[in-house]
Amino acid sequence: MDLGLGISMCLGLFVAYIYWQHRRLNLAQDMAQLPAVSAKAPLLMGALLVLLTLAIYSQTGRFHDWNQGKVDENIDYLVAADITKGIRLVEKEPQNTLALMSLAQAYSAGGLYADAVQTLDKLLLLTGEDAEVLGSKANALYYRDQRQISPETTQVISQALALWPTEPQTRLLLATDAYLNARYSEAISHWQQLLAEPSADINRDTIYTAIEKAQIKLNESGSASSH
Length: 227
Fold this sequence. Notes:
Blueprint: H1 3-31, H2 40-59, H3 75-92, H4 97-109, H5 113-127, H6 131-144, H7 151-163, H8 168-180, H9 184-195, H10 204-226
Helix pairs in contact: 1-2, 3-4, 4-5, 5-6, 6-7, 6-8, 8-9, 9-10
């Protein structure tokens, strides 16, 4: 059933109930030979109910699209729930490597990169040097430091690539940083290394598109410098 129709029916039934009660009261008043209650009372109550409902919708920001019947899923609440769930699981099972990785990912999704780094450090104590965990840590450090590759991040990147030269998260991070800083040839090189790895778990279509954009930028910068 359409949400608007459902709400209209509920309001209509409630207003009808008010009028029914008004008629019963007037019948009782008539039997008791007392003055009838004015019809203005249920009318005002019905109007007030409708206005109050509209006011609630307007204040909650759902006035224009309430009729679509969609749940307002705020991603911040979902991420907060994931973080809370992850913290509880890690407290219960501190040696659970999957739980630690999930918590670190939840922290990163919520923009809590410092917490993600601390969680990944705990994970590294359990796993030892692991390329994927180091790649995750490098990304968390990068965004914690406002998209800057610090000496600490450089060290973590070096460790990850020493273990796995085409570790996807690390290569993507290097490509992203190079692109954002107009080092387009370097960005293309990192992306091409990923594409050359058959087993890499990456979105190849997205990377091809990124390479095309970087090539366009590179050509534009080359044309500008030649003039």
